[in-house]
Every structure is written in structure tokens, then in C-alpha cells.
Amino acid sequence: MGRKWNNIKEKKASKDANTSRIYAKFGREIYVAAKQGEPDPESNRALKVVLERAKTYSVPKHIIEKAIEKAKGGLDENYSELRYEGFGPSGSMVIVDALTNNVNRTASDVRAAFGKNGGNMGVSGSVSYMFDATAVIGFEGKSADEALEILLEADVDIRDVEEEDGAVIVYAEPDQFHNIQEAFRNAGIEEFTVAELTMLPQTEVQLSEADQALFEKMVDAIEDLEDVQQVYHNVDLGE
């Protein structure tokens, strides 16, 4: 799974370079999660997941508080959670998750971003069956064996534990996200380099230099859309 983690790191590094965009996306996601349940992460698991992810992207406290306060207020913005699936050059596959208050606009924008960059949007289920919903937790300071021992003692189910670039990476079912973090926190680990609920490809594809350039242009165009929250793909972007 190490190659998959490299792609997550690449995506995270890309987003880190566009802080205003990532902060805006987290603000919307925090608002929606808080609006759907209690605006308290201790009683709202979806909100807690978003806030844990936000920490790894260094989202400022005032942006988090503003989104939660907005959810507490009288303003009622209704957002729909949408998933689009499509194809890029040479068999590459893409999943796009969006939050939108205008479904027609978002569908049109996503379709255009695919079509203008060598891709095409598919029907629901045409791509997602080749991906696995996965919790990914990463931290530094312990070995994979030490991390595995902590998880076994806490009776937490996982798929895999690896060491890569000085970090321990844990892969598990999404419903184990909180259990993994709790087990590590009980062992004195407080800082996580990654805390994601993601879609990992079952297999990756390598593209020619020309196709990869086109693919990256397509993904950039999709990620630039205001309503898009996450983009997942099966392309091996290399080191």
C-alpha cells in the first residue's frame, strides 16, 4: 500500500500549496457536518472526523469556529452531497466528491472539466467498484511493530500497518477511524501527519508523460471547482 500513500501525500502537498482553497473547502464541510447533527464533535462523529482531518491541514481555529457558529445560527444553507465518477487518459479512473447548493451547476462544471481535458464522466458505479473506502492514519515516532502492538492491545481491526519515509501508516475500514486514533492517543500519541477517510484504488496505472500531463491538468481543473471537496484517482504519480 505504500504507493497509494505516496499519492495521498502528493495530493496533500498540492492542497497545502493552495491554503485559501483548502480552508474554504473545509469551512463548507465543517458547516455541513455540524448542521446535520449537533454542532459538538463529542456527540457528532461526522463533525469529529472532519475536524481531525482539518488538523492535519493546519486549518486555522477561526475558520473552524466560524463554520460551527454558522451552523448554530439561523441561516440555513442546504447542500447536497454528490459523487461523480469518470475516466481520464489511458484507462485512468477518477472519483469526485462534491458539496453543492446547485446540483445542475455542479454536474455541468464537473462534466466540462472532464471533457475539456481528455476525459469523460461515467455513470454511477462505473469507477467506484475499483476503489476501497479506507481510513488512513499516519504519525511519527514509533515503528510499525510498536504501532501494531498498540492496536492489538486495544483490539482494533486494521488492514495493514507500514513504515514509510519515517512515518507509520495504518490502513483500516472507515468505521475504525476513531478507534485507531483513540488507541494511539491512549499510548501518548497526539499528533497525526495524516488522518483521512479516502478512496484507495485496488490497482494503479502508470501513464505516459504526455497522458500524465493531461491527466494532472484534468484533475487540477476538477479540484479548482468551488463545489468539489475531494478527488480520488488510480494513477501512480511516482515519487
UniProtKB/TrEMBL annotation:
GO molecular function: DNA binding
Subcellular compartments: Cytoplasm
Keywords (A to Z) from UniProt: Cytoplasm, DNA-binding, Transcription, Transcription regulation
Cited InterPro entries: Integrase-like_N (IPR017856), TACO1_YebC-like_2nd/3rd_dom (IPR048300), TACO1_YebC_N (IPR049083), Transcrip_reg_TACO1-like (IPR002876), Transcrip_reg_TACO1-like_dom3 (IPR026564), Transcrip_reg_TACO1_YeeN (IPR026562), YebC-like (IPR029072)
TACO1/YebC-like second and third domain boundaries: 79-235
Pfam families on file: TACO1_YebC_N, Transcrip_reg
Domain TACO1/YebC-like N-terminal: 3-74
Family of the protein in this entry: Belongs to the TACO1 family. YeeN subfamily.
PANTHER family, per database record: TRANSLATIONAL ACTIVATOR OF CYTOCHROME C OXIDASE 1 (PTHR12532:SF0)
Stated name of the protein: Probable transcriptional regulatory protein ACFOZY_04330
Biological source species: Chungangia koreensis
High-level lineage: Bacteria, Bacillati, Bacillota, Bacilli, Lactobacillales
